[in-house]
Amino acid sequence: MSTTATPPSLSSAQIEHRIRALDEHVDQLRAIDVQTYSDDNKQILVALQARIRDTLERCFGDNSSRYRHFQGAGYLYEPIGRPGIFTKRGALEAQLREEVGENIRRSIGLLQSARASLQAELADIEHQLSPVSNANSKSMPLSRRVFVVHGHDNGARETVARFLEHIDFEPVILHEQANQGRTIIEKFEAHGDVGFAVVLLTPDDEGCVKGGELQPRARQNVVLELGYFIGRLGRNKVCALKSGDLELPSDYQGVLWETMDSGGGWKLKLASELAAAGYEVHLSTKRP
Q1: Where do the CD-NTase-associated protein 12/Pycsar effector protein TIR domain residues begin and end (predicted)?
Q2: 141-276: which CATH number, 3.40.50.2000, 3.40.50.2300, 3.40.718.10, 3.90.25.10?
Q3: Tens digits of per-residue pLDDT, 36-51?
Q4: Closest CA to 233 of 250, 212, 256
Q5: What is the rounded distance in angstroms from the CA atom of residue 111 to the CA atom of residue 107?
Q6: Which tens digits make up the pLDDT trace of 110-147?
Q7: Contact 170, 145 (CB under 8 A)
């Protein structure tokens, strides 16, 4: 009978080392030229997937829930979805490259999510080790700017933004901000004065474990940004609103999930979380 392993207890230095290892794997994957790849040099993928699996085991423990969530990053050469494509004689080069490209993109996305999970764990450790963090948070005024992370559901995004304005917060929506030649992460960093983040998990994408059935889920960039703000602000200053029936990321333990119900009950719950984070919230100051 299989058992679930206990995730390793890592120090800050060990977590930082493993984050660097994940970053190195992402760089290695991006360096692979899919357009010129052939089955003759499959050993490149075989060796890299072995290193990725080893890194994930050292990050999360073999057979832990978080390891199982990210283990798909270690499938580069094995076919996913079309068994036998690499072993059949005469397989078209175009099919081979398409499969390899798909595996590489999946691996990069999972490794980036794994990195965000470790970053959140590191932020928790650093917060616990800082004896002056609570005193500083009480003495410094809280920013009433709230970052709204969203997928393709524009209606949900606008509803949340207007509610935040109604209770005297300033919603920050990424696509409304000027690019000025910056990357997505640089745009996040440019708005480092936000004090809270609301993450909208809407069923904009589909995914599954190897051999499973496709299930609705949030877009991977939304999951990545969830991890980014947990690491930057702390878990108590991030609220995830779930809309519709979708698979929730299992690796963000301790994050608050609220259902964005049609009756508007989520508004009171979000206001309560803002108040618990130290904000003054007055629901009756304006007309609903």
Answers
A1: 145-261
A2: 3.40.50.2300
A3: 877 777 888 899 999 9
A4: 256
A5: 6
A6: 999 899 889 888 887 777 665 544 444 454 578 899 99
A7: yes
